[in-house]
Amino acid sequence: MDNKYTVGIITASDKGSKGEREDISGRRIREILPAENYEVVSCKVLPDEQEELEQEMIHLADECKCNLILTTGGTGFSMRDVTPEATLAVCDRNAPGIAEAIRAYSMTITKRAMLSRGASVIRGQSLIVNLPGSPKAVEESLTYILDSLEHGMDILLGRDGECARR
Ligand SMILES: Nc1ncnc2c1ncn2[C@@H]1O[C@H](COP(=O)(O)OP(=O)(O)OP(=O)(O)O)[C@@H](O)[C@H]1O
Ligand SMILES: Nc1nc2c(c(=O)[nH]1)N[C@H]1C(S)=C(S)[C@@H](COP(=O)(O)O)O[C@H]1N2
């Protein structure tokens, strides 16, 4: 079918971008997204540099027209962590409920979830969601939000106007 959601993935990691660590988190995102519903059009590992992250998000949203842009990493308190700043800089409309839901659910697993500053926003018709960096956090966060993300994307794309109760 051609109604698949197109996805761009960005791993923000200094170590990963220098080849010093295998990007398991980006791979985990691809594994979690069911292939029958999602087409991953790009998967990049970038250093924790705000300008580079912004440019890639803009490219994925404006040129590739990705329905969904998922980032992993760079959401914490390290001085190099700037993924939320890059995301908010390219935001047309804030969609904070997704980031709030990730933190609320993750707090039931680890109190350290409060240390993720991840954001979730809309640029044009692209939904951008920041996931934390570790493969474990990616799995916990993404599996929790995925079905609601699909409903949100359908509304954003005008495919679905109805909010059935769930
Ligand atoms: N892309 C990734 N692939 C595999 N493991 C990761 C990845 N990102 C983070 N991790 C794991 O999660 C831990 C915490 O991530 P954190 O964002 O603090 O990374 P870091 O070691 O500070 O460096 P960097 O920003 O270069 O990824 C890491 O020590 C690593 O075990
Ligand atoms: N679901 C979930 N969320 C989580 C975690 C986790 O293990 N599971 N780890 C937390 C920790 S320890 C940190 S420091 C922050 C920020 O991670 P990042 O800098 O790798 O993005 O995410 C948090 N969110």
Descriptive account of the structure:
This protein has 166 residues and is an alpha/beta fold. The protein has a single domain, classed as Molybdenum Cofactor Biosythetic Enzyme, Chain A, CATH 3.40.980. It is 41% helix and 20% strand. The chain is built from six helices and six strands; from the N terminus they run βααβαβαβαββα. Strands 2-1-3-6-5-4 form a six-stranded mixed β-sheet, sandwiched between helices. Strand 5 and strand 6 form a beta hairpin. The chain is globular, with a radius of gyration of 15 Å. The chain starts with a strand and ends in a 10-residue tail after the last helix. The mean pLDDT is 96. The protein binds adenosine-5'-triphosphate and the ligand Nc1nc2c(c(=O)[nH]1)N[C@H]1C(S)=C(S)[C@@H](COP(=O)(O)O)O[C@H]1N2. The site of the ligand Nc1nc2c(c(=O)[nH]1)N[C@H]1C(S)=C(S)[C@@H](COP(=O)(O)O)O[C@H]1N2 has 19 residues, from helix 6. The site of adenosine-5'-triphosphate has 17 residues, from helix 1 and helix 2.
